[in-house]
Amino acid sequence: MRHLVLMLFCFLALPALAQVTPAPAPNPRVALETSAGRIVVEVYLDKAPISAKNFLRYVDAKRLDGIVFYRTVKVQERFGFVQFGVQNAPAKMFPPVKHEPTSQTGIRHLDGTLSMPRLAPGSARGEFTIMVGDQPSFDADPAKPGDNLGYAAFARVVEGMDVAVKIMDAPISPAKTLQGSFKGEVPVTPVKVLTARRVPAA
Question: Angle CA(75)–CA(77)–CA(80) in degrees, nearest 5?
Fold first, then answer.
């Protein structure tokens, strides 16, 4: 009789057990070891899979090793962004990826958010920005005329935001440009990314 009751209990418990789903895997984290210090970012694979996988592809291929923060836009104290990437070097670029607007991902351009610069939607490759201060003008806005899709945000700084601020506060050359662009936004001594690696899961 005891065995029959036990078998009946197990049978009744099966539907409840079948409904238990494993917890989703945590988003990966990447550590940027720079000449100015360490920056760790959480990459939102769950919200922006296309843009996140693009960034991780550059990390895993070690194509961000040795690149620099080549552009600083400082509008006012602790407000602007810093930009780093492969600078369109043919040997380091992967193909462009489909644009993921913030209206689709829900990731807003808040302080510490990582995003991808672009020309036309779907042209972003291996250039990345870190917001210093909230930048709502970078978000998609259907009410705007013309190209209103904004930029694709895909990650957020979780450690080392002070390093990003230090990079933004570094001296800027008033005359230097990069291929004729970014005058007044090019650092005198660019901060180098020594390595970019995934942080092992705890």
Answer: 40
Q: Strand 68-76 relative to strand 79-85: parallel, antiparallel, unpaired?
A: antiparallel
pTM of the model: 0.88
Task: Report H helices in the chain.
Answer: 2-18, 49-60, 102-105, 161-169
* Half-sphere exposure (Cβ direction) of 182: Cα atoms closer than 13 Å: 20
pLDDT in tens, 42-98: 999 999 999 999 999 999 999 999 999 999 999 988 899 999 999 999 999 999 999
Q: Is 163 helix (H, G, I), strand (E, B) or coil?
A: helix
User: What are the tokens at 129?
Assistant: 């920005």
> What CA–CA distance (Å, rounded) separates 68 from 121?
25
Residues 136, 108 contacting (CB under 8 angstroms): yes
Cα 146 to Cα 8, 120, 141, distances in angstroms: 65, 11, 10
Closest CA to 41 of 101, 93, 97, 84: 84
Instruction: Evaluate whether 124 touches 99 at the Cβ level (below 8 Å).
Output: yes
Whole-angstrom distance, CA of residue 82 vs CA of residue 63? 19
